C-alpha cells in the first residue's frame, strides 16, 4: 500500500499507520547484518510461532529486541540461556501495529563459534591427511573382552548408563573405571593420561571413552589434537561414546568404533549373555544332530559292510564255481572224446595219429578209435 500524506495548508501530515508503514518499508530494504550481544529475557511458548529475546550490549547496557521463527530456532539446535553471548544474523524490522522496533533474526551462533569451527576444520583436514581417520586402520572390537576400560567424568549418568548396560547384558564382564575431567581446559590432557593408564592395565583389551553429551563448548576437549592422536595410537581398540548427534568430535573419527550414547557403547563392547546362551544352545543342538546323523550313517555303512562280508565267501565260491563250470564246458567242447561222440574217429598208424592219406601205404596196420571203443584195420 502506498504511503501518502494529508495536506494541511503548507504541511504534509502522515497518519501513524502510514508513518509506521513507510518506516517498515524503508527498513525492509536494508541488508542483513551480524550483531553481537548477550541473551536476556529469552521467551518461547509451544503455541507461539516465534521465539523472542533481548540482545544486550555488555559494555553499556544497550538493548535490542529480537524475534526468530520457532521452526528456524529449533533447527539451529543450540541450547541458549540468559547470559549466553551470541552473534545474530538478521535485518531490522518494525511491527507496524505497535511501532515496535526489533531485529528479525535469520541465524544465531555462539560467540567465537565461527573461529572454533574454522580451527577444527583445519585440524580435521590435517589429521585426515595423516591417515588417522581411514577405515583400514580401525580394529575390530573383541568378541568377549577379558576386561573393559571406561574413561568418564564424575557425571553419574554417563558412567551409570555404561555400567548398567554392560552388567545387564553380560554380568560376568569386568570393568576398570578411570574418572577424570571431561570438560574444561584440563580435560584433554587428563583424558589422554587416563587412556594410556587403562590401555596399559592387565587384561584390558577395549576402552570406552564416554560422556553424556553437552554443548559445543563442553565437547571441545574431545576434538583436542592430543586426545585424537592418543585415541588413534592406542594399544587397544577405543569406543567413542560422547553422546552428541549434532556435531561429530574428532575423537569419534579416530576411534575404532563410535556409539551415539554411553548406553549404545555398552551394547557394543559386550554381547548379550541371553542371546549368547541361545546361540550356544542352537550350536549344541546342531552338533548333537550332526553327531547323531554321523553315527547313523556310520552304522548304516557298517551294516552294509557286514552284510557284504557275510555274503562275500558264498559269492566268491559261486563265482569260482561258475568259472570252473565255464572252463569245464569249454574243455568238454574241445575234448577229442566229444568229437568222437559226434561220429568222428581217430586213426593211428605206426607213426602216430594219421592226419593225411599220404601218411600211410597200402597194407599198413591201423588202429581206429571211435566213441565206444577201438578196432584194428589195414590200409588198402
Structure description:
The chain is of the alpha/beta class and about 375 residues long. The protein has 4 domains: about 5-110, Nucleic acid-binding proteins (OB fold (Dihydrolipoamide Acetyltransferase, E2P), Beta Barrel), CATH 2.40.50.140; about 120-270, Hypothetical protein af1403, domain 2 (Rossmann fold), CATH 3.40.50; about 270-335; about 335-380, no CATH class. The chain is built from 10 helices and 16 strands. The protein has helices at about 15-30, 70-75, 115-130, 155-170, 185-200, 225-230, 250-255, 260-270, 275-335, 335-340; strands at about 5-10, 10-15, 35-45, 50-55, 65-70, 85-95, 100-110, 145-150, 175-180, 205-210, 240, 255-260, 345-350, 350-355, 365-370, 375-380. A 5-stranded mixed beta barrel has the order 3-4-5-7-6. Helix 7 links the parallel strand 11 and strand 12 (about 255-260). Helix 4 (about 155-170) runs parallel beside helix 8 (about 260-270) and helix 5 runs parallel beside helix 6. It is elongated, with a radius of gyration of 53 Å. It starts with 5 loop residues before the first strand and ends with a strand. The model has no long low-confidence stretch (mean pLDDT about 85).
